[in-house]
Predict the structure.
Amino acid sequence: MQQKKWVAPASADKIVNPLKGDANAAASGKKLYKVMCFVCHGPKGKGDGMGGAGLTPKPTDLTSKVVQAQSDGAIFWKITEGRTPMASYKSSIPEKKRWEIINYIRTLK
């Protein structure tokens, strides 16, 4: 069964990344990515992590044009809200840390 395309609400595009362009935030985000995201999204963000192998849908390729074309706010919304099989990280990753992960994701393209 094909899952519907995951699209953040238009309002998410208005959420502004307070750390945009901050290289230190991207470096910190990389460390967090290795702990929180790597297992499913893989070492280079291609969606090929060991933990994602049995998941439906497969983890997203974070290097893809589709992901990189999304606003920081849309990606923030997805990390915050989650969608099965991806967990919501609203309570487990502090807001600033979620932005740091987004800054790191931007380096993967």
Observations:
- The mean pLDDT is 95.
